[in-house]
Amino acid sequence: MLILVLEASTTSAKAMLYNSDTHESKVLVKTYGKMYDDVTIHNAEQVFMEMIALGRELAQWQDVSLVSLSGTWHSILLCDKNMTPKTPVYLWSHTGAADICRGLRKDAAFVDSYYHKTGCMVNTVYPAYKLLMLRSMGYDLGSYYIMGQGSYNTYRLTGRRVITECLASGTGLLNIHEKRFERSILDEIGIREDQLSELVSYSKTFPLSDEGAALLGVKAGIPVIPCNSDGGLNQVGVGALEEGVMTFSVGTSGAMRLTTQQALIPDTPSTWCYLSPKSWLSGAATSGCCNCIDWFRNSLLETRGSYAELDGEADAGADTPVFLPFLFGERCPGWDDERRGGFSGITPQMGRRDLYRGVQEGVLYNLYQCYQHLVELNGKPKKIKLSGGILNSQNWTQMCADIFQEEMEIDKEKQGSLIGGAVLAMELLGVISDAKDHKPEVCERIIPDFQNAQFYAKKYQRYLDVYNENFCKGGR
Question: Which of 314, 380, 325, 390 shows the shortest CA–CA distance to 351?
Answer without folding.
Answer: 314
